[in-house]
Amino acid sequence: xxxxxxxxxxxxxxxxxxxxxxxxxxxxxxxxxxxxxxxxxxxxxxxxxxxxxxxxxxxxxxxxxxxxxxxxxxxxxxxxxxxxxxxxxxxxxxxxxxxxxxxxxxxxxxxxxxxxxxxxxxxxxxxxxxxxxxxxxxxxxxxxxxxxxxxxxxxxxxxxxxxxxxxxxxxxxxxxxxxxxxxxxxxxxxxxxxxxxxxxxxxxxxxxxxxxxxxxxxxxxxxxxxxxxxxxxxxxxxxxxxxxxxxxxxxxxxxxxxxxxxxxxxxxxxxxxxxxxxxxxxxxxxxxxxxxxxxxxxxxxxxxxxxxxxxxxxxxxxxxxxxxxxxxxxxxxxxxxxxxxxxxxxxxxxxxxxxxxxxxxxxxxxxxxxxxxxxxxxxxxxxxxxxxx
Length: 389
Ligand code: AMP
Description:
CATH class of the largest domain: Alpha Beta
Number of domains: 2
Bound molecules: adenosine monophosphate
Helix content: 25-40%
Shape: elongated
């Protein structure tokens, strides 16, 4: 079901509550922001609301304060960084609800950042009274926090029933557009590349994507659970023995859609720079840490012909060169393919960054857990709750 976008709202003279994802990484006891990527990601939505003549209230969680105020997880550095990026005054409220906050509400063109939502246990508990207090602050609601949309909390779900209209922000809109297109009506051929450590983390993603896409290229440690289920020697590679039956079932069900590595870079040691060789059958005393050259070539070929590519998870232990070769090669192939490319998950994002190709990717999802759930076919509660278009 299509959802209302911020562009559908009349924001002039209104107070808009924008749920953002400002859960930034912090250092120095919460004083220093080490990456402002998440703040930058919501700037277009904030700027749009200001241009339309709204007073902007911003709210986010930060870290895990477990329902109590904690100076090390205050939004204070976020307010300072946002002020610098926006080039206009950003007031910081001492709390996220209550009379003191109500006395600070923004006039049109002003920005008020609320203090950490998770300083109240009622946020994660999706408490109705707390939800009403949040809703009381605004005329209309916008959710731009895709990374939190898989959680049914007061600020992502609860408060929506108490506001007149609830729309997706520009960042949320972009996430829904790309992920929605890829999982329902992709341009074909559509290829999914799935890697990472465990089959168990991605069963639902494999099952859901295999129904829609034309090929699923499997890499990373999870490939070895599939290969072992086919009777191959996997040596000391990471294998989930309790998922062998499931791997067999998936291979039977989706047959040639699931593509497995045909060669592997193996080593005796799990460490960067370890001595290694490329093999087609894994020796009993070695572990496979990356896909081999033949597999890279085969996967590159399939990627070249794709019109849509969805990628989640590295092809090997990419944190430990030289076992990053497969992941980096595929990152380049995806970037050069000319296909609509959607990358999700922190590790895949790091991989495209280290391959220097981020700007050639159509969409890098901002929500790790949320994008995996979306790709699994689960309707995210924070999206479901928004007003239908
Ligand atoms: P995930 O969080 O499931 O996407 O898994 C990412 C992790 O999988 C990374 O830390 C990789 O190092 C790890 N990984 C990928 N391939 C392998 C492999 N062949 N053996 C062990 N770990 C791997």
